[in-house]
Amino acid sequence: MSERSKSRQRHLAYVRLGVLEYPSSKRCSDCGYTVAKMPLNVRSWTCPECGSIHDRDINAERNVLAAGLAVSIHAEAVSPVSL
Ligand SMILES: [Zn+2]
Fold first, then answer.
1. pLDDT tens series, the chain, 83 aa
2. Number of H helices, E strands in the chain
3. What one-character DSSP code corresponds to residue 5?
4. What gap in Å lies between CA 16 and CA 20, rounded to an integer?
5. Ligand 1 center to residue 21 CA distance, Å?
6. Which residues surround ligand 1, an ion (CB under 5 A)?
7. Which end of the chain is more exposed for a tag (fewer CB within 10 A), N or C?
8. pTM above 0.90?
9. Please, what is the angle between helix 3-19 and helix 56-74, to 10°?
10. Domain residues of the chain, as ranges?
């Protein structure tokens, strides 16, 4: 694959991730459990599935990083169902 093709593929992966509705803050970055609702004023939470305690923003950053790596490394489409 040429460098131009690799660059284009990375750009497309970025664009795909950018428009995705992904529950990054509501999804446990340790086990993948997703809570149905989480009001914006909830800044930390405990996963009911595995018991991990999450800072909302750090948890979201971990999930976005994992999704971005999946797209850039595997050129996979990412959806809340696939992650
Ligand atoms: Zn969990």
1. 676 666 555 554 554 555 456 788 999 999 999 999 999 999 999 999 999 999 999 999 999 898 888 878 877 665 555 54
2. 2, 2
3. H
4. 6
5. 20
6. 28, 30-31, 33, 47, 49-50, 52
7. N
8. no
9. 140
10. 3-32+43-74
